Hints:
By secondary structure, the protein is an alpha/beta fold. It has helices at about 45-50, 115, 120-130, 150-160, 175-180, 210-215, 240-245, 255-265, 265-280, 295-305; strands spanning about 5-10, 20-25, 30-40, 65-70, 85, 95-100, 105, 140-145, 165-170, 185-190, 200-205, 220-230, 250-255, 285-290, 310-315. About 25% of the residues lie in helices and about 30% in strands.
Amino acid sequence: MPQSVRAVVVDPSHSDKLTLQSVELPPAASGDVTVRVTAVSLNRGEVNRALSQSEAGARPGWDFSGVIEEVAADGSGPPVGTRVVGMLPTGAWAERLRAPSHAVAALPKGVSDAQAATLPVAALTALHALRQGGLLLGRKVLVDGATGGVGHLAIQLAATAGAEVYGHVRRADQKPMIAEWCGDRVIVAPDLRAAASRGPYHLIVDSVGGSALSAALTMLQPSGTCVTFGISEAPTTTFESGAFFRQGGVKLYGLILFHELRTVEPAGEGLAVLAREVARGRLRPHIEIEAPWTDIAAIARRLIAREFAGKAVLHVG
């Protein structure tokens, strides 16, 4: 018999657009686990798409944490009762869900549901971006948008890897959020070009685009890499091509997380690494907002308006 669950559904006719509705829980594939969701987190990309591009009936949501209710029919994945973190390409904002067993990871003791829910898209993006730099021990790494959902996690992971981490923020009040990991290497300026005097850099992680990406491409050391995955400032840029290629061997890498998860490693493997870092106290997601998931429309509006840094977590049920 079909099972009914509550989930967040896009309804353009409603003033909030994001509504809680009763939907049918899809049948499980042989490799799917069933998860009772306890918390979800919001990412700007999915929220923007849900509010401005999705059709009626769409089911948004990438990040979730919860408890295994049913094991996969093929025997893969954690046993019943295991607390897990996981992600889906869509539909994670629900009371219960089906997820491929390779897309979830068991949570160590000491990692809260809220902490876990912040990890899938933001922390996995940071992890895969930093991996483009290879061995980071003693290397200069620059992160722009450093107080954002991805940026503040990239700062911490780079520091744990032994990098000399520089973080760029645009306002002085944002500095304390990353000063613990950057020390006196926090660069406060309206433009990323202010970071040039501290370079060149082995790896630059860019989530801003526009003028920030333009500046980043001129601040790499020979064989350095710039990883870009966001366009919060602008979707286009121009840059000094000569200053870029004359460094020799430099690279610009465009990162889309779901491509990385298909071609590099499944989400569950990276999530297991990240959850262990949280348990060890070496990765501390900055959770700015915790609220019941019934508040999703209001929190989504605040996220799009950039009214807070860090992550927003919604508790389900």
